[in-house]
Design a protein that fits this description.
Elements: H1 2-23, E1 26-30, E2 34-39, E3 43-46, E4 59-66, E5 69-77, H2 84-98, E6 103-112, E7 115-125, E8 130-140, E9 143-153, H3 165-172, E10 174-176
Antiparallel strand pairs: 1-2, 2-10, 3-4, 4-5, 5-9, 6-7, 7-8, 8-9
Length: 177
């Protein structure tokens, strides 16, 4: 009986301490159509989404950074008669045109949260050093969403550089409602 009383007595304080520690581990940001949980230690900013994207421009929704690695969530309205592939191809053309040191790495179909998505990986020169970017593109309610994780990379052409584990964790923190 005394052990049961001790467990009962300590149960509430331990539960409260656990809740405080868990809340210190991450921050959750809510948008109209998504939620994003940033890991502890990331400096994160959420931008106000607009109902309509003026001039079909890309809207930044989330920016988070820790050291030299940064992660962005952005979206773009998919115009009538267009589709996600058209948006991605336009983006790829713009990305490759920004730098003479652009290196296409790969493009694959992946699944995220049970929905089809496109993974697009490339390297480019941003001063010192090169950076490698992994983008995940998805469609939701007429919007093309992109989750982009960028981190420093080696510039050796053709060199296979694994995507940082942190990039995978950041993508896993994103969910549509």
């Amino acid at each position: 009986m005394p052990i049961l009383r001790l467990v009962h007595f300590l149960g509430l304080p331990l539960l409260l301490i656990s809740m405080i520690l868990l809340s210190a581990c991450s921050s959750t940001y809510q948008g109209d159509e998504f939620s994003f949980t940033a890991p502890v230690g990331f400096k994160t900013k959420q931008y106000e989404a607009q109902a309509v994207s003026p001039n079909k421009e890309t809207q930044s929704l989330i920016f988070t950074q820790k050291g030299t690695l940064y992660f962005q969530i952005f979206r773009q309205n998919i115009p009538t008669g267009s589709n996600l592939d058209t948006i991605i191809n336009t983006h790829k053309a713009q990305s490759s045109g920004r730098s003479s040191h652009y290196q296409f790495i790969s493009q694959n179909m992946v699944e995220m949260d049970g929905r089809p998505a496109v993974e697009y990986v490339y390297r480019e020169f941003h001063g010192e050093p090169y950076v490698q970017t992994r983008e995940i593109w998805m469609e939701n309610n007429g919007w093309a969403y992109a989750l982009a994780c960028t981190n420093p990379a080696d510039s050796t052409p053709g060199m296979l550089i694994p995507v940082a584990e942190t990039c995978f964790r950041l993508v896993e923190g994103f969910q549509f409602k």
